[in-house]
Amino acid sequence: MTSTWLETVSKVESMIPLLGKLGREQSVKVQLAGQTLLADSVAGLIAVFDQYPELDLVQVEQVLNNLLDSGVANVSVELEEVLAQMDLTALAGNAPKGGAVPVVLYGFGRIGRLVARRMCAMGHTTPGMHLAAIVVRKAGDNDLAKRASLLKFDSVHGTYDGIVKVDADNEQLIINGQAVKVIYASDPSEVDYTAYGIENALMVDNTGRWRDHDGLSVHLARPGIERVVLTAPGKQMKNIVFGVNDSDITAEDSILSAASCTTNAITPILSVLEEKYGIESGHVETVHAYTNDQNLIDNVHKGDRRGRAAALNMVMTETGAAKAVSKAIPSLEGKLSGSAIRVPVINVSIAVLSLTLKATTTVEEINALLKKASDSAALAGQIGYSAEADAVSSDFIGSEQAGILDSLSTKVRGNQATLYVWYDNEYGYSCQVVRLMEKLAQYGLVTEQASTEQAA
């Protein structure tokens, strides 16, 4: 790192406008070992750079200036790779040209609003896409104002660091100066998105109402929609855990699932352990925050036990997350069982992985392996690492990683390993969804660009 603290501050201050311009004008997201460099905070940037004291901030600033001069757009740039080569030629050649893919959020509940927050966060860039519309059922004459308020103020995640306004005349929200149309509909079949100027859009279904290919195909049948992402486990489609099996996506995949929050939390860590040791069998017990699906007071519920008061009880239930892991890691098919306990906290869950490995190991070896993975560009967004002796669940609210290893709780006896993985089942999962969306948006722009060039 730069030699003195004041020099570091000065250098980082000079990067803020460069990162901001790259994001605003070229839709370029710059990352360091998988961590996004945001244009909103000097302290935030210094905290990221402080993890890499060997980094030459003069070179980093040079790269940012070169990116601006190159005209490269709609891409995510991994700083380590560019610094190693100091050559933007290939990056510029592979970058998609043209405008951003419009995104439609179908449903605006917990995940829908957090996806919107992430996409529209101050200083954050979502390459190749922009939030165009939200589809909801109207909940009264003051619906727009209530939607805006719920986006701005959140009991768990705090006040949104951005500007949210209501444009009642045009039925839209203005989020950080960007107009987002609010479309009122009770069913997908009611909406023609082209009537709102939306073409070739990426639809994100946050309702969970349809979880199979046929049900979600209703979205694809609507004018203006090109691809659909389900923010829940899906049937008859690929379940994608970004960072693990997103390379399986092809041009033919018009409907994809982003799997569940728990599957996203545990699959990256399991993939590292499977590659290093091999996993013979295991059980996943998730201690999960209660959700809106449960009753606040005892009442009838279609599911067993979920009708009992969520804020007063630990509620035994089930999870399909363990079985769903094999959709991302086929070698684990039939090897994992799972169960769940809903507990009286409003957010942040923990998964307990009890594993029989194919080789003996130690606590130190497993922790070192996963610490290295958490620092890698490939998995830094998916695997976090905690060595805090006093860590509790609320400390992980707002975590961007899919899952965070509690390294001080790791237990090993021969080939028997027990790992504890924290996860913000709302925001951490939403960040994974946005990462998948970014890949699909850039993929769509490259495909569209190739088709245009062939036609020419």
From TrEMBL:
<dbReference type="GO" id="GO:0051287">
    <property type="term" value="F:NAD binding"/>
</dbReference>
<keyword id="KW-0560">Oxidoreductase</keyword>
<feature type="domain" description="Glyceraldehyde 3-phosphate dehydrogenase NAD(P) binding">
    <location>
        <begin position="101"/>
        <end position="261"/>
    </location>
</feature>
<dbReference type="InterPro" id="IPR036291">
    <property type="entry name" value="NAD(P)-bd_dom_sf"/>
</dbReference>
<dbReference type="GO" id="GO:0050661">
    <property type="term" value="F:NADP binding"/>
</dbReference>
<dbReference type="InterPro" id="IPR020829">
    <property type="entry name" value="GlycerAld_3-P_DH_cat"/>
</dbReference>
<comment type="similarity">
    <text>Belongs to the glyceraldehyde-3-phosphate dehydrogenase family.</text>
</comment>
<protein>
    <recommendedName>
        <fullName>Glyceraldehyde-3-phosphate dehydrogenase</fullName>
        <ecNumber>1.2.1.-</ecNumber>
    </recommendedName>
</protein>
<dbReference type="Pfam" id="PF02800">
    <property type="entry name" value="Gp_dh_C"/>
</dbReference>
<dbReference type="InterPro" id="IPR006424">
    <property type="entry name" value="Glyceraldehyde-3-P_DH_1"/>
</dbReference>
<dbReference type="InterPro" id="IPR020831">
    <property type="entry name" value="GlycerAld/Erythrose_P_DH"/>
</dbReference>
<dbReference type="GO" id="GO:0016620">
    <property type="term" value="F:oxidoreductase activity, acting on the aldehyde or oxo group of donors, NAD or NADP as acceptor"/>
</dbReference>
<dbReference type="InterPro" id="IPR020830">
    <property type="entry name" value="GlycerAld_3-P_DH_AS"/>
</dbReference>
<dbReference type="Pfam" id="PF00044">
    <property type="entry name" value="Gp_dh_N"/>
</dbReference>
<dbReference type="GO" id="GO:0006006">
    <property type="term" value="P:glucose metabolic process"/>
</dbReference>
<dbReference type="InterPro" id="IPR020828">
    <property type="entry name" value="GlycerAld_3-P_DH_NAD(P)-bd"/>
</dbReference>
